[in-house]
Amino acid sequence: MAEKWIQGAIKRPGAFSAKAKAAGKSTGAYASQVLKEGSKASTRTKRQAALAKTLSSLRRGKAKFLVPLVLVLATAAYGANKTCDGSTLTPAPMTAPGPTPDSINARGLPALLVQTVRTAGSATVVLEVSCNDTAWAPIGNGTMTVSAAAPSAVASVLAPTCTYRANVTACTGCSVTVLYSCSGAH
Q: Is 52 helix (H, G, I), strand (E, B) or coil?
């Protein structure tokens, strides 16, 4: 089942590997080069590199899936303005602390994956949940810290309920984009 949501996140299978091969590098080495500070690679290539690193860590077992908090509150998601079509929660990169402008309704789907990609500085981003769209609580193990050493981080929720958003809680000269994808959404 996990392979299906990963397949949904990959829009152009083999494109990044082909770019790495053309550059004469392994996929991992090329991803590191593309994600370095000051890289002139396109936004698409940077996103592909971040996803390649994330998928690499999944293969090594370093990214752990989270079990969501069991919430007794109402399960209605009143204010979510995104369905799980797999997109971005940040129309423009975030450069200051605060919540993402959009939130996701992923109720009833097998899993939600949220990825933070940094293009400058360092940031801490916390994945949060709300069942009434006013009281937001952090997800256990949902804190993502990105910096020059770790330009991308991921948090995931199995069997998501309610509404989810990302909240930048710390930002030092940061520029971060928050992406998401859901399994079973397509």
A: helix
Token duo for residue 181 = 């994808």
Does the model's pTM come out above 0.90? no
Give how far Cα 18 sits from Cα of 13, 27, 135, Å.
10, 9, 45
101 with 90: CB under 8 angstroms? Answer: yes
pLDDT recorded at residue 13? 74
Return d(Cα 177, Cα 179) in angstroms, integer.
7
Q: What totals of helices (H) and strands (E) does the chain contain, helices first? A: 4, 7
Other beta carbons within 10 angstroms of residue 136's beta carbon come to: 17
82-183 CATH:
2.60.120
Q: Which of 100, 99, 110, 102 is nearest to 79 (CA)?
A: 102
Specify the amino acid at residue 129. Answer: V
pLDDT bucket at 101, cuts 50 / 70 / 90: confident
Beta strand 104-105 pairing with 82-83: parallel
C-alpha 26, offset from chain centre: 23
The first and second tokens of residue 39, run together, are 């890289």
Identify which has the larger pLDDT, 153 or 59.
153
φ, ψ (nearest 5 deg) of residue 185: -85, -15
Q: Start-end ranges of CATH 2.60.120 in the chain?
A: 82-183
pLDDT at 1: 47
16: DSSP letter:
H
